[in-house]
Structures are given as C-alpha cells and as structure tokens.
Amino acid sequence: VIAATADINTAADAARYTNFETIKTNDSVNTSLVSGVTNLNITGGTSEVYSEMSAVQAANVTFSGANTTSTVFTLADATGSSDSITIDLDSGTASTEVDVIGLSVIGIETVNLIATTGTNTTDDTAMGFLANTADAVSAINVTGGADATLNVVANTLDVVAVNIDASGMTGTADFTVATGVLVTGSTVTGT
User: Fold this and answer.
1) Which among 92, 120, 170, 180 is placed 20 to 30 Å from 114, CA to CA?
2) What confidence tens digit (pLDDT) does each residue in 28-54 have?
3) 162 vs 2: CA distance, rounded Å
C-alpha cells in the first residue's frame, strides 16, 4: 500500500519495494518506478495521476473506491493506434457502487470498463470522461454484472467516431448523453 506520492516518487524510493505485483494506493504514482508491478488498485483519491504505465499495467487497473473528480492515466508509450486500458470497478461488496467520473485517457484508443459491483438500489455505478482527454477513444466496451451508467458530457467523445458496446453486460446498462454529443458514425450497443 502506497500512502502518499512522496513514498515512491524517486527511483531510490521505489527500489525499496521488491517482489510486488500490485500497487494499492489512493495517491498519484509513477508506475514505472517499481519493477515487476503488473496491477494497479486505486482505493479512492481526488484528482490523481497514474503515469508511465506499461501496457500490462494498463490492462489491470482496479478501482476499489470511488473517484468522482478526475483520474489521469498516461502510458509510457501511447504512440500506437491500438492502445487500451481495462478498468475494473470492484468495491469488494456486491451492492456498493464504485463511481469513476473524470477519467483522462489521452492517447488511448480502447477503454474496457468492467462494472463488477453496484446495484440499482441506490444509484448505478457511474462512469465518464474528463473533458478533452478522451479524444483518441474509438471503442468503449462495458461488461460486468453490476448496474452501470456511462455519462457523456460536453467535450468528451466528440473528436472521433466511437463504438460503445455494452452487449457483454449482465447487469443493467444506462447510457446518458447529458451535455455532450457523439460524432457521426458512432454506435451504441446495449445489453
């Protein structure tokens, strides 16, 4: 568990952590500093940045606590045309939602969102992007057994056509275009 950015903000700090596969934190982390890390578990936080992520790390992101302001993900190399990130929303309690509003995924083309926990008894698990930080996204795949809502607001998903596919969900999926628009050619597939 990394309690604060200052605990692991240099190579010398990171060298103290060996034989760990998962970073569990609610604070910003340069994930490239700790060798061998393949998973990132975010326990909450406010306006945090997870930088220099490898493709393996980006494929194994879990939020166990909500973050409704912004969460920035940057890849060590996002120059390709098929970069992806997989985010599992899993509080560990079946009925507890994990909301992630304000995701920043600059340079990432595919976003896989897994709604593992949450029900309709309070609110759906809410998901959305930070303005002007999802401009490369051309595919969003939503899966999982929880009830979830994907919110599209102004200046998100408005640069390239995006295919939104929730056909793999077993929970209830809602799609809300609040103040945003989708580019012509975009598609939305429900459950």
Assistant:
1) 180
2) 999 999 889 999 999 988 899 999 999
3) 35
